[in-house]
Design a protein that fits this description.
alpha+beta, 36% strand
Length: 401
């Protein structure tokens, strides 16, 4: 007789319970078998080429000097030129400057040279005098052309060269020639014209040695080295969104900023606003900085912090300030090549607020805290934090829970 169980007025056979148990077992089996197995990946040795881009504000230490008087400016040194203290860097011509007086001066000086040469007592012209004549004639032709074309920058340079040549030649000729009334009158006229021209022009000399620039943006005294640790994210955004106009004017105003001198050997900085919240850069890292498509410059990360999904990165440079001498806000690209133990980025886990990876150890997984040196294209270069738990090549790391 079949066994059965009486529940109320119904009789339930034992095989019903066996059937229910089998259904439960099958359900549990199907549930467990449908769960994906944990996936692992082997740690390999690799290299990542990391690039971060953004806009940067340039910070450098420089001294601004004002113009002594008002006048039309003729620059004797190009922006970025290295100058010595006391070296002429510009000439300022006032509004009464007479171009004809310059032409008259060179005409008189040419007559003096010709007269002295024609009246040499011994009629001996050695090779030094011949070379001087050739150089003087060439400069005189160039000067006359500059006066005609109003090329004042070239005119001042040629004038300095001619003055030295004429001084050398006159020393030689004066040694052999006694000045007569005509020659004396030429000397007097030359002195008068030179005195008049000197009244119309003021020569500006560099107050100190360094790199000279006549481009002024108005932030020279604000964005000095002392501003490096004071710039906020809001400050950076304001500079980036409303960059100042760097200007080099054709004239100078008395007691107004005219030129600046930068120490080529001093430290300077670039503070970059990066749209990435995680760059994995660390203080002291050495990277390559590319300003607006120029050649890469070596830089050191001196400071980095995150602010509302963005990163503010401060870079320190020890050379090549001439590359950004006339830049205040500029595109910047950071490039870094990192080698080391490489894992899929998905293997990075957060375990109770600590970043690391789970490594398979027999039939269990152990958690090892790690530091990320770089991440790109779905992979990360990592290293162990503790010397007691070290990641090794070919270790299996969990990439899926």
């Amino acid at each position: 007789m079949a066994a059965f169980l009486v529940i109320g007025r119904r009789r339930v056979r034992l095989r019903f319970f066996v059937f229910v148990a089998m259904l439960l077992f099958c359900g549990i089996y199907l549930f467990l078998s449908s769960r994906p197995e944990a996936a692992f990946a082997a740690i390999s040795y690799g290299r990542l080429d990391v690039v971060h881009s953004g806009m940067a504000v340039i910070i450098r230490e420089e001294t601004v000097y004002t113009a002594p008087v008002y006048g039309k400016a003729v620059y004797l040194a190009a922006d970025g030129t290295a100058v010595e203290a006391g070296q002429p860097v510009a000439v300022l011509y006032n509004e009464n400057f007479d171009e004809d007086a310059v032409k008259q001066l060179y005409d008189v000086q040419e007559k003096i040279v010709e007269y002295q040469q024609d009246h040499l007592l011994d009629q001996v012209i050695d090779i030094d005098l011949s070379n001087l004549n050739s150089d003087i004639n060439s400069l005189l032709t160039g000067i006359q052309t500059c006066v005609k074309d109003k090329k004042y920058a070239e005119l001042v340079k040629m004038e300095n060269q001619l003055r030295k040549l004429l001084e050398n030649k006159q020393k030689l000729l004066d040694y052999r020639t006694e000045p007569d009334a005509y020659l004396s009158s030429l000397y007097d006229k030359e002195a008068s014209l030179m005195a008049k021209i000197n009244e119309w022009m003021v020569q500006v000399e560099a107050r100190e040695a360094g790199l000279v620039s006549f481009s002024i943006d108005g932030f020279e005294n604000i964005l000095g080295i002392s501003a490096v640790d004071k710039l906020t994210k809001e400050d950076l955004q304001q500079f980036i969104e409303q960059p100042s106009a760097v200007q080099q004017t054709a004239s100078a105003e008395a007691e107004q900023p005219f030129y600046r001198i930068t120490n080529p050997l001093g430290k300077w900085y670039a503070v970059m606003l990066c749209q990435e919240s995680e760059t994995y850069l660390h203080r002291g890292d050495t990277i390559q900085a590319v300003f607006d498509g120029q050649e890469p410059l070596s830089a050191t990360v001196s400071k980095i912090y995150k602010d509302n999904g963005q990163s503010i990165i401060t870079l320190e440079f020890s050379a090549h300030v001439e590359k950004v001498l006339n830049k205040r806000v500029t595109p910047l690209q950071l490039e870094m090549n990192v080698e080391g133990l490489m894992i899929p980025e998905s293997a990075l886990k957060d375990n109770k607020g600590i970043q690391g990876v789970f490594v398979r150890d027999g039939d269990k997984n152990i958690f090892i805290e790690t530091t990320v040196k770089a991440a790109a294209n779905g992979y990360a270069i990592v290293e162990s934090v503790s010397d007691n738990q070290i990641l090794k090549l070919n270790d299996q790391v969990l990439i899926d829970n």
